[in-house]
Amino acid sequence: MEPFRIGHTIKDLRRFYQISQQELADGICTQAMISRIENDDLYPSAPLLYQIAEKLGVDINYFFNVSETPRLDYAQEVCDQIRALVRKTKYREAMEMIDLEKQNPLFRKGQFYQFLLWQEGICSFYNTRDEERCFSLLEEALSLKTTAKNHLSEDEIEILTSKANIYCEIEQYEEAIAIYNEGLTLLKTIPHIRSSKLEVRILYNLSRAYHLNKQYKRSIETTTKGISICLKEESMYLLGELYYQKGESLFYKHQADQALVCMDYSLWIFERMENEGFYEYVKKERDEISKTI
Prior knowledge:
Blueprint: H1 3-16, H2 21-25, H3 31-38, H4 46-56, H5 72-87, H6 91-101, H7 110-128, H8 131-143, H9 154-169, H10 173-187, H11 197-212, H12 216-232, H13 239-252, H14 256-272, H15 276-290
Helix pairs in contact: 5-6, 5-7, 6-7, 7-8, 8-9, 9-10, 9-11, 10-11, 11-12, 11-13, 12-13, 13-14, 14-15
């Protein structure tokens, strides 16, 4: 590979991992030197290139023969497929992909390896209910953080909230609530968030945890925050679920009239989204509430 391609590849990898030049340079060289390398003004020495490769989670040979190394778009496609399987609760199929990609050199270090550990942790819980292995894998994934010391990336906050989700599953609601709140605090340290979906997702799960822990007032306050974000950004993401959860908590606070209003909003949203499963579920819950009035 020509020298200029090395600088170009370093820049592509760094941006892909969402690492600043300063973070890449930390413990290796100066930020100015990284800038010069990426701008093709300086060709890195072999020891320096080795350290950069280690920091970016690739073998040094990656820079010299990209054509023989799995491409980033391929690796990202694999990650997307595993995510889709997990979302559909097809944990065994996801685990098969994870086991296969463990042999892929690009998935042996760095962010892709972190991703596999994260998803393996989730799948190990839902496949075998192995809580100890699940938490061990999630902790290992978090230990591989690529961001600066004082904050987590969005993906790492998602790993953190996955822990909270598992705590909810095993009915350890106080632990889950603490982690969800930690995730919301950490989100505030990120200078640029890709989208508000992660915050809304954490707020929704936090509201559920509060409800399950019989902290109905906190649940209502949390759903209200989530709904406010959705309305402000004109987003339907989890809006129906948030209105439903608010309605549930209002009912348990003996405010059935307000609960029905929220349930009606939820039904309206699910009807327009053509989500028949959620629509029928909420309608059944609404009908039960209406009988109490």
